[in-house]
Amino acid sequence: MNELLGKLAACIEFGKVNLASPYPPHMKDQEGADEITRRALDGGVDPQDILYFGLMPGMERVGIKFRENRVFVPQVLMSARAMSTAMLHLKPYFLSGAARQKGTYIIGTVLGDLHDIGKNLVAMMVEGNGYKVVDLGTDVNSEKFIAAIKENTGAVVGLSALLTTTMVNMQHITSEIKKAVPETLVTIGGAPVNHDFCKKIGADFYAPDPQGVVEFLNKK
Ligand code: B1M
Prior knowledge:
Low-confidence stretches: none
Largest sheet: 5 strands, parallel
Order of helices and strands: HHHHEHEHEHEHEH
Helix content: 40-55%
CATH class of the largest domain: Alpha Beta
Bound molecules: CO-5-methoxybenzimidazolylcobamide
Distance between the termini: 30 Å
Number of strands: 5
Radius of gyration: 18 Å
Mean pLDDT: 94
Number of helices: 9
CATH topology of the largest domain: Rossmann fold
CATH architecture of the largest domain: 3-Layer(aba) Sandwich
Shape: globular
Structural class: alpha/beta
């Protein structure tokens, strides 16, 4: 089992989706995340073990390399693709309750802002690390965040903004969330924001990158 999950972790780390995938060149003609996940399930490996000891370590390695500028957006997207392909096999087990996720993370790009590439990377990385992700998309107002929080008790929220004109909307959204469901933890990120801004608007945590969000969620 260890060898199989080790191979699966490598598929996620290097973005090897399936046997037919020519990427990455050093894994050409080898099985990818698709086949290995199927084989592991058919061989009786617990879906939770596949997630925790195969997919998540691979995604964590990508997150760290991305933070250290050792890989870039395209590689992360390939890893996320490999991860999503594997998750298609695992989803039925999670939905049936046979396997447990670590918690729920609600994410959206704030009102007025249509940039979603960074937000999607955060969502993929968080999902890849064992959390259920509720992605509200872009241009999300406080009402939508609050409705999602009420549907997902105990969820942590992530706000993303890429514009200096929309980062200010984070303050209103955070304060409305805290008014409606005071115990909710709000994380923020995106190119124009920083730790001081996070403190100023009353949010709980600023992460400069997806891995920072994962580390916060794992610690809390
Ligand atoms: Co826009 N845009 N854009 N744009 N765009 C920027 C952000 C800009 C810096 C370009 C520039 O002028 N140099 C500038 C903002 C200037 C400012 O506010 N100071 C800008 C502008 C002005 C605009 C428009 C207003 C342009 C116009 O119409 N006049 C317009 C606004 C539309 C709107 O949102 N209402 C606009 C539109 C667009 C496109 C639609 C064309 C497209 C978006 C496509 C899409 O997202 N689907 C676009 C793009 C692609 C960019 C740039 C080129 C790239 C952004 C990106 O995806 N980066 C950008 C310039 C640049 O950054 N070079 C620019 C890659 C991505 C992986 O990084 O999103 O920073 P990033 O995410 C990072 C971190 O920030 C962090 O993790 C990610 C990975 O490390 N992170 C989080 C992000 N969210 C997080 C949340 C977290 C934690 C970490 O916790 C919750």
